[in-house]
Amino acid sequence: MKNLFALILLIAVTASLASAKTKTVRIYFVPWSMSSFANMNAEHVRKRAFVKTEILDPSSADAFVAWLGEDKMKEDPRYQVEDIRLVIDAEQDDGTMRTFVASRFAISALSSGKVRIINDSFRAAFNYFYEEGG
Prior knowledge:
The chain is built from 4 helices and 6 strands. By secondary structure, the chain is an alpha+beta fold. A 6-stranded antiparallel sheet has the order 2-1-3-4-5-6. Helix 1 (2-14) crosses helix 3.
């Protein structure tokens, strides 16, 4: 929890003063290493999430969405985001929803289908919630 809160705080501090495009962000998370009988999709994660978190400050929400790195995502048929463990719903000021999904290995923006590989530092931002003793 402290890793995610530290990340959100860091993002909030570094967020620009420009007007925000993102109204809120909802984060749904199932542990990366949890075994499941079938590959989970976004709706499964929303319903069965161990952690549900919301970012209500528009500047922090914008900065969090920027941290996801959609600008670094590419269309690449070699990478499929299957067995989803993380769903991020970013509600825009105009009421539209941008959704990102991540497996243990990659994150994708559902609207564009673009994807990028994620690493241990990305996964670590969410690890606290299921670590022993956490």
